């Protein structure tokens, strides 16, 4: 099949490379000339494990290419995927659909024959209707069908998620679109990946419901963690105790500093806004958004408390800046609020992150950056683990303590058991690990 991927950002690039790896011919189109030039020269603009090798191999096999020229790419396409960004709209939190609608207009202007358009971007219910309307209005002469195929991949594990999905959701109101998308995903039939074919609106809502549910699960366990601290219980054991119940499931029950990233914060907010607009508010998700927002700042207070009530004039070492490991993405990362909270309270910050420092520099001010965990800890009055990178999972705690001024460890991801930290001379604070 010949596939056009409109938007060479995170989702477009990963999906395009994976479709090419299935054996399809994929052209990724983006209006950002510099990005396309970089990709043509083999430079990948994001950090995602395995993506550079996957792109290189498929380019070498002539199955994957990059261009700014949509007119040329569209001529022979069996399907055109829209994979442009849908950020939070400034001011009101609705999804900003301007890039999606621009993509629809670009497709209409360049189409030469019947087309199947598929939205992969996360878009509110009804966006497919509007995309269809835009294209039909501009090009009443061509046959167009618009489907929805939301993406469920996680940053840091995107390629494996794409190739071994729990399910593929296809929202198509007409059988032709469903057949084309089914053909594109056919290589996954071997893995027996379930394909769920629904109406377009159902597919659009499924994506938001999935992200909102996962964000709710995390927020639930975070609040239980706070309660654990108060009553002297251990949230990790509670999570295991409930997670082994198949109806609940063990995943997404790791208590921490609150969820961040490019998806959960914007998608939960957009769902809240859409539901309010429809007169059917999703109050649970409203609470999730509010609780998670407050939590990030509360984590700064937790660090201050661990530092005997004050960080004024103290040097705080931060390990991990990205919103999760194996990415360089800093969007809505808890580290941003936590560091700002500590700086407001008079602390100076030294930080280390394996991949995120370049992005962090653009978002944080007055932070010193270290080259590794041990140099970060040098002369520090406390060390705070914000992101659970593998590089921080097996630190020599004794060595770490020896270079510090004060042996305080605040572990916001519960990477280290309290006993191990204390055995190495640390004063330990985890999340949801109460003491009695
Ligand atoms: C999320 C979803 O997991 C994907 O299925 C979805 O496709 C994607 O959003 C999207 O809409 O594009 P992602 O944002 O890459 O993926 O990362 P997650 O692994 O879901 O983590 C999100 C946040 O939740 C991170 O800040 C992470 O640290 C936090 N988290 C996750 C926890 O605090 N506890 C957990 O148990 C799990």
TrEMBL record:
Reactions that this protein is recorded to catalyse: UDP-alpha-D-glucose + 2 NAD(+) + H2O = UDP-alpha-D-glucuronate + 2 NADH + 3 H(+)
Binding site residues for substrate: 152-155, 207, 252-256, 260, 324
Family: Belongs to the UDP-glucose/GDP-mannose dehydrogenase family.
Record bears the keyword Oxidoreductase: yes
Active site: 263 (nucleophile)
EC number: 1.1.1.22
Pathway the protein takes part in: Nucleotide-sugar biosynthesis; UDP-alpha-D-glucuronate biosynthesis; UDP-alpha-D-glucuronate from UDP-alpha-D-glucose: step 1/1
NCBIfam families: NDP-sugDHase
Protein name: UDP-glucose 6-dehydrogenase
Any one GO molecular-function label of the UniProt entry: UDP-glucose 6-dehydrogenase activity
Organism (species): Methylorubrum populi
Superkingdom classification of source: Bacteria
Pfam families linked to this entry: UDPG_MGDP_dh (PF00984), UDPG_MGDP_dh_C (PF03720), UDPG_MGDP_dh_N (PF03721)
